[in-house]
Amino acid sequence: MSVSEKIVSDLVANQVSFVTTVPCKQLAGVIDEVEKSKDIYHIPANKEDEGMGLCAGAYMGGKRPAIIMQNTAIGVTINTLVTLTQYYRMPLPMLISYRGELGEPVACQVEMAVHTKALLAQLNIPTYHFHKEEDVEELDSILKYTFMCNKPVAILTDASFWQGY
Amino acid sequence: MIRSEVLREIAPILADQLVVCNIGLPSQELHMIDDQPTNFYMLGTMGLASSIGLGLALSQDKKVISIDGDGSVLTNFGTLPTIANNVANNFILLIVDNGSYGSTGDQPTYAGGKTSLTEVAKACGCDNVVECQGEDTGKVLQEALDGDQMTIIICKCESGNVKVPVITMDPVVIRDRFMRAVGSI
Ligand SMILES: [Mg+2]
Questions:
Q1: What is the C-alpha separation between B3 and B98, in angstroms, rounded?
Q2: pLDDT tens digits for A97-130?
């Protein structure tokens, strides 16, 4: 089983059935698996705050949602995370491509990477960092934790985790 | 006709429907006119009423009406292609287009200038796009509810506001009673 297949199988095992995505090169494999899954309604969003709105609606409709996006999106979505997801107390697993870490070829990505964990900490968002491939073993527990506490939870996945791209 | 008059006129139609209502004055006015557990009031996050409504419509079978504004649609323009490409026939997007940012003091929007939200929605691929005058909103909304097809209504009306209290209900209470009305908890 590839790491992308493992991620999507953990989503499905935790009844996540509504996934919105904004693409990232690093996440292409997992987005393909989401699209292929018969158990998930995949709805690409044009912007991450729009995606979080879709997820809020899906949650209130009785589905477990998730969002897949790049860490640059933290800058885009702070208001939505605070005044929608957190304010109304809704669960939202955020599978995030952590661009700008070791192995990054694009210098500009580092500019957002240096703020990523600080912003998540400031927002009191529980944050997990997948650096080695075996870190994916925690995903199942992280998903259970997210839907237990009804909070947005960040899973940062860096280039070492994806073993280059 | 101004937005609060439109809302007052369509309130009997909205009463037993799931409604996701835009931030600011639209939510405050709807709350004052006819507060219902089937109303989800947005207290923050301008622009996402249509996204929340679409996500809700795609996730369960009951009809969903999102009440949005021209300014809010302009701030989340990406929503229209997403709606067009993810058809939910239980979804109605009602855009109250008064050509102004009502909640912030009626500053003009581009929708009141050269930009037609009706034409934009059509260009984005939305199939049933109906433009109407404020006076006809009730009739058009009822037809959309009876039609079982996803519909985008652009209700053209005048700008202007009435004095209305803020919503003091706790957001978790709004969400909890709404989800009970949906039947998802
Ligand atoms: Mg307006």
A1: 7
A2: 999 999 999 999 999 999 999 999 999 999 999 9
**Residue boundaries of the structural domains of chain A:** 3-162
What confidence tier does A44 reach under pLDDT thresholds 50, 70, 90? very high
> Smallest Cα–Cα separation from B66: which of B79, B44, B51, B82?
B51
Yes or no, beta carbons of A53 and B51 under 8 Å apart: yes
Q: What pTM, to 2 d.p., does this model score? A: 0.98
Nearest to B82 among A41, A45, A80 (CB): A45
Looking at residue A164, what is its pLDDT?
57
ipTM of this model? Answer: 0.98
Is domain B3-184 given the CATH code 3.40.640.10 in the classification? no
What's the rounded mean pLDDT across residues B37-66?
A: 98
What CATH code would you report for A3-162? 3.40.50.970
Q: To the nearest whole angstrom, how far is the Cα of B98 from the nearest Cα of chain A?
A: 23
- Interface check for B12 against chain A (CB to CB < 8 A): the answer is no
For A62, phi then psi, to 5°, come to 100, 5
Does A18 sit within 8 Å of B44, measured CB to CB? no
Give the mutation candidate from A60, A76, A78 for the B interface (greatest B CB count, under 10 A).
Answer: A60
By the CB criterion, residues less than 5 angstroms from ion ligand 1 are: B 69-71, 98, 102
H helices present in B19-170, as ranges = 25-34, 49-59, 70-75, 79-85, 117-123, 137-147
